[in-house]
């Protein structure tokens, strides 16, 4: 089975926008890969005029929120850096080397890379310019600039969502068959670890584990 | 046999696929269905139809079943048009309050903002796989259909039309636009102009050998140039001190008004005149008292001219005359008409006939009947300002009641035989006229049949306005009692036809005119005169009757029996001009309705009428 990779368009976001943007993107991807019986749940973003769809699974929502929290913590420690979150779907295959007992391995069949460029210092800066309502001298130009920036982020996010839909439509053959009683495929969310190099190593390890991404099944 | 079974499976998948797509589209583009879907999704029950493609959508709209039936030929495309209807320029703009009704109404424009096309491209004769391959084959098709539906569901929420649907599905706001849909098996191509602003997106076809399922959408990339805006409307407000309410002290003085308008006394025997201090009435229709001053915000907001609605739609006497009356009626009528048309079309033309219209489009409104109808909903009563009111006053054919009375009754009538707006109102009005002249008394029953319906709407103002609109101004009604000729004189001469929208009354002498004894002597001396003087008497008698009348909530029969007897006895001597041959029951009914106008009769209108006639 080949592993399809989708690199999503990079989004330039501010710290306070990370949570909403990531929730939107990750849930949208999972919704398209939750091929079991789902009761779709429309969620409106607060910062943008965008509605995305969740598959309605509470546990999934919790796990995604946890990962987002970890990512935000990482961003706070590594400000003003480009970062990447990887959402991978895999199949569990049992491997039975003759000298070992049953061993399972993950066969990744799809990987989504969410690319974010967090532009501001997480706490210090954002508390000054965004979280506090009283700004020293906002001026009309600052407000206009903020709203135009917000519109740009919204447009970019919308583009990313369209990109997801397009990818889902174009690539269908690699999706495994649906198992009975399973709502969504097993997934894994990988966030940057404490160091960039470690993050890169994690990705390489995964690639070695699952085989080359271009390997056909 | 096996081939039939296999082809049946494929047909079932394709059929359910089309139904599901239609359901997804309608749920996110039809405001009422969208709201229902959000509510039904919260239910835990999973229906059989929900299990198809593993997507729980809730209850299927009833229209879907009919549409499925009409579009059951799977080989024909299913075209779903989402149409944006923009209503005229009847907006919340203050300028529109004073624009002529025709201009303020404006035509509706319809624009196709989305077109979804679902088709199964398949040769007519085909062979389906069989055996073990068939199960794998259908599973793959099914999986791909699921994926397509997921992406369709997401995409529905990203296109511009979704926000419009969301706005319309909210009950808290009304808009100058509406969304409807049309489903058919063919589509008229877009004009070049229409195509310019549209984008196209095609979902990757699902190979369902021997054919493939194709879904595509052509949509407007932006709707910002449509000037879609909410209509500013007054929030519903319970007026606790409404004048016409039985529990309100009719003689209460109102708080002083900044506008400087003055209450005028109602010249009648036995009445304590109200204070002549300026007052402000917290009602939309009270702004007539403040004519000459800029309307307050509430007044202006309330003033979107009802002409658009009233002139275009006949009123249904059975509909409750609420603030949303015109809106409801209009929606009801439109949606009913459209639905009737749609279902008739189902019956009349088969879905896939080879006639000129190969498949009669099913045109259904998904509009929320309570929403989205424009200006009529925004309390279409405004009391015109000085310059404008003159026009109203001078014209009998205009409908001053419309602008000076509570906008609740559909029978805010034009006093014009050619008007189609409020036929019942006009009929009843004219029948009152006939009654006074000794004709059939049935007119009054019409007059009160409307208010009875209004009464059911549990709204005093509705009752009040129902009365007014059906009978015209009380003053005119009173004048009718004298003679038709005098009525004509009144209409021709006076600058207004409703006592409520006049504020140019000279109130400086109100204190002197409020002297009861003077008024009584006037009544006594002139009681036998027909025309101007009898009007005073009529007004006086009515006020007296209304004052002593029991509350409206009592049994009307008892009320009418007792009160009219009492009042008639007391007023017979002075009201002979008023009590022209007519039945007691008619007078009682009239009394019931006029009671609600009691306090307004105490104010300027009567005084002005007398004054004007005095000047003449």
From TrEMBL, chain A:
Pfam families registered for this protein in UniProt: ATG101
Keyword Translocase annotated: no
Keywords, comma-separated and alphabetical: Autophagy
Single GO MF descriptor: protein kinase binding
Superkingdom of origin: Eukaryota
The UniProt record lists the keyword Signal: no
GO biological process: autophagosome assembly
A GO cellular component annotation in the UniProt record: phagophore assembly site
Family: Belongs to the ATG101 family.
UniProt protein name: Autophagy-related protein 101
Automatic annotation (TrEMBL), chain B:
Cited Pfam families: ATG13 (PF10033)
The Autophagy-related protein 13 N-terminal domain, residue ranges: 15-222
Record's keyword annotation contains Membrane: no
Polar residues: bias regions: 249-259, 387-399
One GO process term, biological-process aspect: mitophagy
GO CC aspect terms: Atg1/ULK1 kinase complex; cytosol; phagophore assembly site
Record's keyword terms, sorted: Autophagy
Stored InterPro entries: ATG13, Atg13_N, HORMA_dom_sf
Region (Disordered) location: 249-327, 381-429, 455-481, 506-525
UniProt name for this protein: Zinc finger with UFM1-specific peptidase domain protein
Native source species: Hibiscus syriacus (Rose of Sharon)
């Amino acid at each position: 089975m080949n592993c399809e990779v989708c690199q999503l368009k990079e989004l330039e976001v501010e710290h306070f926008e990370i949570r909403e943007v990531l929730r939107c993107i990750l849930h949208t991807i999972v919704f398209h890969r939750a091929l079991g019986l789902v009761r779709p749940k429309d969620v409106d973003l607060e910062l943008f005029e965008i509605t995305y769809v969740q598959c309605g699974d509470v546990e999934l929502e919790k796990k995604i929120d946890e990962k987002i929290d970890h990512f935000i913590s990482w961003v706070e420690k590594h400000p003003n850096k480009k970062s990447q979150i990887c959402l991978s779907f895999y199949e569990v295959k049992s491997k039975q080397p003759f000298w070992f007992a049953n061993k399972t391995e993950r066969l990744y069949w799809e990987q989504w890379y969410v690319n974010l460029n967090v532009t501001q210092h997480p706490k210090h800066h954002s508390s000054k310019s965004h979280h506090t309502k009283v700004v020293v001298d906002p001026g009309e130009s600052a407000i206009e600039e903020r709203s135009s920036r917000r519109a740009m982020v919204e447009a970019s996010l919308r583009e990313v969502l369209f990109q997801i839909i397009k990818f889902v439509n174009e690539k269908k053959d690699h999706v495994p068959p649906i198992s009975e009683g399973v709502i969504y495929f097993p997934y894994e969310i990988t966030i940057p670890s404490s160091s960039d190099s470690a993050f890169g190593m994690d990705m390489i390890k995964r690639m070695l584990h699952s085989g080359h991404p271009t390997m056909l099944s | 046999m096996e081939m039939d079974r296999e082809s049946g499976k494929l047909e079932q998948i394709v059929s359910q696929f089309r139904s599901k797509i239609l359901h997804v589209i309608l749920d996110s583009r039809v405001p009422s269905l969208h709201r229902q879907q959000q509510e039904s999704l919260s239910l835990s029950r999973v229906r059989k139809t929900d299990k198809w493609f593993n997507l729980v959508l809730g209850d299927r709209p009833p229209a879907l079943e009919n549409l499925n039936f009409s579009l059951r030929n799977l080989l024909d495309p299913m075209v779903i048009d989402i149409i944006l209807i923009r209503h005229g320029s009847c907006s919340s703009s203050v300028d529109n309050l004073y624009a002529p009704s025709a201009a303020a109404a404006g035509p509706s424009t319809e624009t196709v903002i989305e077109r979804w096309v679902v088709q199964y491209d398949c040769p007519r004769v085909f062979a389906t796989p069989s055996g073990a391959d068939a199960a794998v084959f259908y599973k793959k098709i099914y999986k791909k259909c699921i994926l397509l539906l997921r992406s369709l569901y997401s995409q529905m929420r990203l296109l511009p039309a979704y926000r419009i649907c969301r706005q319309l599905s909210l009950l808290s706001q009304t808009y100058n636009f509406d969304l409807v849909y049309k489903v058919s098996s063919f589509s008229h191509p877009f004009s070049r102009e229409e195509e310019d602003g549209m984008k196209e997106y095609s979902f990757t076809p699902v190979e369902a050998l021997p054919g493939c399922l194709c879904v595509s959408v052509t949509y407007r990339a932006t709707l910002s140039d449509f000037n879609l805006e909410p209509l500013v409307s007054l929030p519903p407000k319970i007026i606790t001190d409404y004048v016409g309410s039985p529990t309100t002290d009719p003689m209460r003085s109102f708080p002083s008004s900044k506008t400087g308008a003055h209450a005028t006394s109602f010249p009648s025997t036995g009445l304590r005149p109200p204070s002549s201090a300026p007052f402000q009435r917290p009602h939309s229709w009270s702004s007539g008292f403040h004519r000459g001053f800029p309307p307050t915000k509430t007044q202006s907001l309330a003033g979107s001219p009802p002409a658009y609605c009233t002139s275009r739609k006949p009123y249904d006497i059975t509909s409750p005359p609420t603030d949303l009356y015109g809106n409801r009626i209009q929606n009801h009528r439109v949606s009913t008409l459209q639905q009737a048309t749609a279902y008739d079309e189902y019956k009349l033309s088969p879905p896939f006939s080879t006639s000129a219209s190969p498949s009669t489009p099913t045109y259904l409104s998904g509009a929320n009947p309570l929403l989205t109808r424009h200006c009529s909903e925004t309390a279409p009563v405004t009391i015109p300002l000085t310059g404008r009111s003159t026009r109203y006053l001078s014209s009998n054919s205009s409908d001053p009641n419309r602008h000076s009375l509570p906008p609740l009754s559909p029978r805010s009538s034009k006093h014009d035989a050619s008007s189609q707006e409020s036929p019942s109102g006009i009929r009843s009005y004219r029948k009152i006229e006939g009654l006074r002249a000794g004709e059939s008394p049935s007119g009054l029953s019409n007059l009160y049949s409307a208010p009875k319906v209004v009464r059911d709407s549990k709204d005093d103002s509705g009752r009040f306005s129902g009365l007014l609109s059906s009978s015209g101004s009380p003053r005119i009604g009173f004048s009718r009692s004298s003679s038709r000729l005098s009525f004509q004189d009144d209409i021709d001469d006076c600058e207004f036809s409703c006592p409520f929208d006049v504020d140019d009354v000279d109130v400086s002498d109100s204190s002197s005119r409020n002297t009861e004894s003077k008024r009584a002597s006037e009544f006594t001396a002139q009681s036998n005169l027909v025309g101007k003087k009898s009007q005073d008497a009529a007004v006086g008698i009515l006020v007296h009757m209304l004052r002593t009348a029991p509350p409206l909530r009592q049994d009307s029969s008892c009320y009418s029996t007792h009160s009219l007897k009492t009042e008639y006895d007391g007023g017979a001597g002075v009201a002979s001009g008023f009590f022209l041959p007519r039945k007691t029951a008619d007078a009682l009914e009239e009394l019931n309705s006029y009671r609600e106008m009691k306090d307004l009769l105490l104010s300027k209108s009567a005084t002005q009428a007398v004054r004007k006639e005095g000047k003449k």
